[in-house]
Amino acid sequence: MARWFNNISIRWKLAFSFLLVIFITLLVTLLVQRAIIQPRMDDFLRNYSILRRGPEIANVIADSIPNAQNWTELRGLLEQIARLFKVKVFLTDANGDLRVQSLLPENIPINESQIDEALIGGTAIGTIFLDQRQRIEVVTSPVYVAGKLVGAVQIAQEALPGGLLVGLSLTSSLLLGGLAAAVVALILVVFLSRGISAPLLKMKQIALKLSRGDFTARLPAVSHDEIGKLASTLNYMAANLEQMEIMRRDLIANVSHELRTPLASIDGYTEAILDGVIPGDQIEETLQLILGEARRLAKTVSHVLQLSRLESGQIRMEPRSFSLQEEFASLLRQFQLGFEQKGLVLASEVPPEPIFLLGDPDRIHEVMANLVANALAYSPSNTTVTLFARRESKSQIRLGVQDQGPGIPTESLHRVFERFYQVDVSHSRQTEGVGLGLAIARQIVEGHGSKLEVASEVGKGSCFSFLLPEERGAELGDPN
Ligand SMILES: Nc1ncnc2c1ncn2[C@@H]1O[C@H](COP(=O)(O)OP(=O)(O)OP(=O)(O)O)[C@@H](O)[C@H]1O
Ligand SMILES: [Mg+2]
Predict the structure, then answer these.
(1) C-beta separation of 447 from 363 below 8 A
(2) Which of 370, 357, 284, 292 is nearest to 325 (CA)?
(3) How far is the CA of 49 from the centre of ligand 1 (A)?
(4) CA 97–ligand 1 middle distance (angstroms)
(5) Cα(first)–Cα(last) distance of the chain, in Å?
(6) pLDDT (tens digit, 9 = 90+) per residue, 91-129?
């Protein structure tokens, strides 16, 4: 049953559910009607039906007969009864001759045969038709005074006009109502299911398109219900897929471009040496160039791999507490020689108290080393590069590198974090840069829930920095 229900379309599910509800409602109503309403109604009909009233009225009249001088004196009583019960009353004598009758309604005639029947055999019941429409219920009862038959009383009452439903029993009218409800339900199902299944079918088409690699497909916003939410989730997914697809294409295009250039150089230089085009005294220099390009290639490949692992979340940050002062000392050791060789000063500016930061120490070192390497690469000699750490709030430290280099033009500022982006390509060839350092640094900083920021002014210098949380526990554990 459940399996069968799962396999049918929404339209049929709705139809089935509606009909089931109607059926159950009907069943309960019928049961209630059978158990409670019908017995009461029968009771009511029994008590108040004309059939029962006939003999009762005969008794009332019989009680009045001994006091009456003649038949006409009973007229008043007949009129009262007629008005009270809305019936026509006839009174005959023991021979069946009409003696007195109530006035209204005028058009109902006496039923002679029933009078005869009542005078012989007791109360008689019947229905007569005046014409096609008018149905009259008639009851005739004998009237006894002191055990002696003195006449018969006939009461006649117009039956309810026979409308469409009046003739039906309660059960049949309930069933008819149920049928009408079912028809209405089925019409509703058609409209409802169209409203539900149409967007679902559309989603199916979009999902198919997505699976075939068409990520531009989107659904129109329809409703705010579950289906609408599903649609917007699907749109969100499509947008993400599209973004990823663009990134993937970009990456492949970038990488192949970046690889092609050094490969072409290697190819060209090597061929030149083999062809003997390069004079003997320049061969070593050319081999150095080839080595440089090969290293550049290797560096590009390893950086691209690292970046793509970072972007896809394969590299996880492992935050722990580490000493800010130790990190700065390690950077100074690492870069001191390089700075001296280029005639640059590497300074550091840290708060006097020991500070412990929360982050992945190796990755943070990588970020800082990247920033320092850039400052070293792009700054002219006789300038100063400053490593700094400043308290920005109670629990946050801003780490960064400030240089007095050429600065970055405003229009390039937002692009320096893009992979393979380089402001000055000719310069970067000399510095062996491939344009991935800042992209990697940004990924790592974002992996720490922070943001790598840059401020730069052409001719004055650049400043790259980011915030890291301070490890409070370590500070408390510090004896001072
Ligand atoms: N301190 C700086 N001063 C001036 N320009 C800079 C500075 N840092 C970065 N840039 C510019 O931003 C570009 C991108 O830097 P990024 O570190 O991403 O790549 P790269 O240094 O060229 O190569 P690598 O992948 O080897 O780091 C650089 O090519 C340079 O033009
Ligand atoms: Mg760099």
Answers:
(1) yes
(2) 357
(3) 106
(4) 130
(5) 75
(6) 888 888 888 888 877 778 888 888 888 888 788 888 777
